[in-house]
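S.,

Sequence below, as promised.
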Amino acid sequence: MRLSRGIPFIVAALLAGALSRPTPVAATPVGEHHCARQERVRVPGAAFQQSACLADLTTAGLAGTPYTDMADQAGLTARGTRTPAGVPGIQIDGYFPDSSRSNATHGWRHDAQFVIRLPDHWNGGLVVTGAPGTRRQYATDPAISDHVLARGYAYAATDKGNNGADFYRDGKRPGDAVAEWNARTTELTRAARKAVAQRYGHLPRRTYMTGISNGGYLTRWQLENHPELYDGGVDWEGALWTADRPTLLTSLPTAVARMLGSARDEDLYAAGFARGSEFLWPYHERAYWGVTQKIYRAEFDPAYDTGCPGSSAGSTPEQILAPCASDATYDYTSRPASVRRAVARVALTGRIGRPLITLHGDLDVLLPKAVDSDMYARMVDARGRGALHRYFTIAGGTHVDGLYDTYPERLRPILPCYRSALDALVSWVERGIRPPADRTVGRPANGDVLNSCTLATPVAPAAG
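The prediction came back faster than expected:
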C-alpha cells in the first residue's frame, strides 16, 4: 500500500485512528449453511461482542468496511501480492474486560479488542495471532488471515491489550505491558477454541499459533508456556527478549548513536547488523530506530530518562519518530538489576513444547537476525528441543515486505516463504512429514518472487 505524503509505514500504523462506518459487506446468502449457528456463538469472557454474517471474510471483500483496517496494515505486504477472496462466514468483533483505552477501533476506545472469523467451509483447524509492532487486531489480515481462511481455518487475532506508541504507559510495573500481550493471547486462544466449538459442534482438531515480529515473539512464548493449547507454530522474525543476552535494548542504542553521529558503520556490524544492509539504514533512521528504542526502553527501564519520552512518545509523526539523545549511550548491562528483572518477566527460554518453524530475513535491520533468531535457535538447541525446531533464513528478506516495492532488485518478500512454512508445519504436525533441515532460502534470479517460495524438498517420515 503506497503511503500518502511520504509518511513512513510505522507512523501510519501508530497514528491510524478509528475507522469510519461505511455500508457493511452485504450478507448475501451463499449456501445452505451460510453463517449457521451465528446466534449461538458467544465468546467466553468477552465484555462485549458483535457478530456479522458476511459474504467474504477476506480483505478483498472487507476493504472500506468496519470489518478491517487498511491503514493499520500499511507496509506489511508488498504490492502485487496475490491474496484470496470469496470466503463467506461469520465475523465476531469485541473486547475482553480491560482498564486501558488506547485502541479506538470501532469508536470503542477500549483495549483487549479481538476479531474471530469463522468460515462456512471449515477444515477443523484454528489459527491464532497477535498484532505485530504496536498495531492492532486487523494488522495481519492480508498477510495471515486471508491465506488461512482460504485454507478453511478459523482465525482469531488480538490487539495484545495495549497498542500505539504509548503502549508502555499501560500497567503499574516495568514489563507489565508486554506481559499483558502474552496473557491476552492465551485468553483469546482459550475463548476462540470454545467459540469454534459453538459454531461447528466440536473443538478444533488442530490449533496453530503464528505471528510477525512481536507476534512472532508471542508465538515463541506461547509454545514455551502453553504447549497444551497448540499443535505448532510459525514464527516470522519474532522479537527476542531475554534478561542476560542481546535484545533490542542492546542493538538499537548503537543505531541511535549512528543517527546522532556518534557511531560508525563498524559499530553497527559489531552490534549485529548485517553487512550489505546499509542501503536500508536511512529509512530505518527515519522510521524505526529512534522510536523503537525509546518506547521499549520506557517499558522496561522507565527510570533511565524520565524526561524522554516522559508521559508520551509524542503526538505528531516528528515527535514520535525522534530519538532520545540519551538512548545513544544507553548501556543495558550497566543498568540496575531491576531492569533485568523486568525483562525476565517476559523472557524467552527456548523450551518450546510444540513444533516451531522460524523465518528471518538476512537484511532485517530492526531485529538483526544475528542477535535474534540465530540466538533463539541456539537457545532451543541448548534446551534439548532442537528436534522440534526448524529455522529458515530468507536471503534478501527484511523486516517489512513493503520495502520490496522500493528495492525490488535487492529484496524479496518473506510472505510467500511464510505461506510455504505454514504448509510445511501442517505437513509436519498432521502427516509426520518433517520439514527440510535449517537452511538459507536463496533469492531466486527469476520467477514470481511475490507469490512463490520453495523452502526445500521435504524429508519423508523415518521408517518405523
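Confidence is low (pLDDT under 50) at residues 1-7, 15-30.

Coffee later?
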